[in-house]
From TrEMBL:
<keyword id="KW-0028">Amino-acid biosynthesis</keyword>
<feature type="domain" description="Indole-3-glycerol phosphate synthase">
    <location>
        <begin position="3"/>
        <end position="246"/>
    </location>
</feature>
<keyword id="KW-0822">Tryptophan biosynthesis</keyword>
<keyword id="KW-0456">Lyase</keyword>
<keyword id="KW-0210">Decarboxylase</keyword>
<dbReference type="InterPro" id="IPR013785">
    <property type="entry name" value="Aldolase_TIM"/>
</dbReference>
<dbReference type="InterPro" id="IPR045186">
    <property type="entry name" value="Indole-3-glycerol_P_synth"/>
</dbReference>
<protein>
    <recommendedName>
        <fullName>Indole-3-glycerol phosphate synthase</fullName>
        <ecNumber>4.1.1.48</ecNumber>
    </recommendedName>
</protein>
<keyword id="KW-0057">Aromatic amino acid biosynthesis</keyword>
<dbReference type="InterPro" id="IPR013798">
    <property type="entry name" value="Indole-3-glycerol_P_synth_dom"/>
</dbReference>
<comment type="similarity">
    <text>Belongs to the TrpC family.</text>
</comment>
<dbReference type="InterPro" id="IPR001468">
    <property type="entry name" value="Indole-3-GlycerolPSynthase_CS"/>
</dbReference>
<comment type="pathway">
    <text>Amino-acid biosynthesis; L-tryptophan biosynthesis; L-tryptophan from chorismate: step 4/5.</text>
</comment>
<dbReference type="InterPro" id="IPR011060">
    <property type="entry name" value="RibuloseP-bd_barrel"/>
</dbReference>
<dbReference type="GO" id="GO:0004425">
    <property type="term" value="F:indole-3-glycerol-phosphate synthase activity"/>
</dbReference>
<dbReference type="Pfam" id="PF00218">
    <property type="entry name" value="IGPS"/>
</dbReference>
Length: 261
């Protein structure tokens, strides 16, 4: 699946312009929001209509209204899927949300070319995702530095130790996301975050992405790891009472964390 997505992205990149116009948006820092969260963990809530693994998640999809709902909750940031082909997202969703919602906005897409970094800035993103699985070390470094020079935060996503090693050999990432979803089989396992936790540098903010749905999931991650945040899509999208769900995640808390270095 990841291969198919990359093939499609290469096509899309060809039709992107060579120049982009930076608009003046107020920057909301994803890094700062996760570093000092309102919740016990920083929550990045995703605006996600559909996915290759689950198909359509919600029939009546109004991205701005979802983002406005998130803004009323105690969440730290919003992730917006801008991929059209596989996730039924759109770049315009991100721009509209940026113009109307005062939270850091992460552009969630499959960035494989520098033009997409510039496009993200033009769209109004505060942060971009770089997926180690689809980038060479040299590209990771180039796009990471380019993004920072444009005042974009970067969340670098990894799935296993080799990808993490590749990332750490080229940059000192401020934010790392461990994606619990195997991008080939779509299966999610929170053990992915648990296994990688000992290797995430202490000075890096550490996000666990995908497959988080219940308070047991949240407690498992808090007990076994030192994560700073969670990126959650499906659970928020399908839940009508998002506030209660979020409250429930932190109600019991974790008495002791097993995690130690
Ligand atoms: O969500 C998918 O099915 C998917 C498939 C292939 C590549 C990426 C995919 N998702 C992107 C994401 O990383 C998630 O939308 C995000 O982490 C939230 O995950 P979840 O809470 O499980 O919806």
């Amino acid at each position: 699946m990841l291969d198919k997505i990359v093939v499609q992205k290469k096509r899309e990149v060809q039709s992107l312009p060579n120049t982009f116009h930076e608009k003046e948006y107020k920057k909301n820092s994803l890094y700062d929001a996760i570093a000092v969260p309102v919740n016990p963990l920083g929550i990045i809530a995703e605006v996600k209509k559909a996915s290759p693994s689950k198909g359509i998640l919600v029939e009546e999809f109004d991205p701005l209204s979802i983002a406005k709902t998130y803004e009323q909750l105690p969440v730290e940031a919003i992730s917006v899927l801008t991929d059209q082909q596989f996730f039924q997202g759109h770049p315009d969703y991100l721009t509209k949300i940026k113009e109307n919602v005062n939270l850091p906005i992460l552009r969630k897409d499959f960035i494989i070319h520098e033009k997409q970094v510039k496009e993200s800035k033009e769209m109004g993103a505060d942060a971009i995702l770089l997926i180690a699985a689809i980038l060479e070390g040299s590209q990771l470094k180039e796009y990471y530095e380019m993004a920072h020079s444009m005042d974009l935060d970067v969340l670098i996503e990894v799935h296993h130790e080799q990808e993490l090693e590749k990332v750490l050999s080229v940059v000192n990432p401020r934010l790392i996301g461990v994606n619990n979803r195997n991008l080939n089989t779509f299966e999610t396992s929170l053990d992915t975050t648990k296994k990688l936790a000992p290797y995430i540098p202490k000075e890096t903010l550490f996000i666990s992405e995908s497959g988080v749905k219940t308070s047991e999931d949240v407690n498992f991650l808090r007990h076994h790891t030192h994560i700073n945040g969670l990126l959650v899509g499906e659970a928020f999208m399908v839940e009508s009472d998002k506030r209660s769900m979020l409250r429930g995640w932190f109600e019991t808390g974790v008495e002791t964390s097993e995690y130690s270095t």
